[in-house]
Amino acid sequence: DIVMTQSPDSLALSLGERATISCKSSQSVLYSSNNMNYLAWYQQKPGQPPKVLIYWASTRGSGVPDRFSGSGSGTDFTLTISSLQAEDVAVYYCQQYYDTPRTFGQGTRVEIK
Amino acid sequence: QITLKESGPTLVKPTQTLTLTCTFSGFSLSTSGEGVGWIRQPPGRPLEWLALAYWNDDNRYNPTLRYRLTITKDTSKNQVVLTMTNVDPVDTATYYCAHGKKGNWFDPWGQGTLVTVSS
After folding, report:
1. B38 touches chain A (CB under 8 A)
2. Are B16 and B92 in contact (CB under 8 A)?
């Protein structure tokens, strides 16, 4: 199984600050035949299902604000919120869809300081 | 617009079989590449992928639960059914179904259904 490890487990920042979440996979999720990273990021607000923010490691989902960005390749990925807003309070998960079993990171809780 | 909705019991006794139904619209599981996945989330815990049903019956399971899970599809009803045998209190979780094309992420997700396993 591909193990996804996120860091930190939680972070508390002031409004307007930059939030950076790391996700590392135990093996590469870069598919050589198409040079795509099979990595997605989800946002889960309290009492709601997860919503995809980023797929292919760096492509924003429909309607996702441009303050959210994804980067990285191979085994190391980053989700960045450029200017934290109150509505960004949530738990963020990375997930690989390179192989089954599909696996998620343990989540990173983002709060406002 | 794709939508999915989970349905099933809210309370199940230990050792019983849990049956959950995902009813969806906006796509067809008879179309090449299409799929529906089940993911669960115990209270306060991370997400755990359970199974995937694909248009071509190439179904996939989480190996840790493989012998307890069965996923089936009814294309005519636009439904995917997940059964889990011999449930235990540790199976208490919110169960989500989600649209998941072959080789793709999950999007969108249903609202989820909370299943409690307790005697």
Report:
1. no
2. no
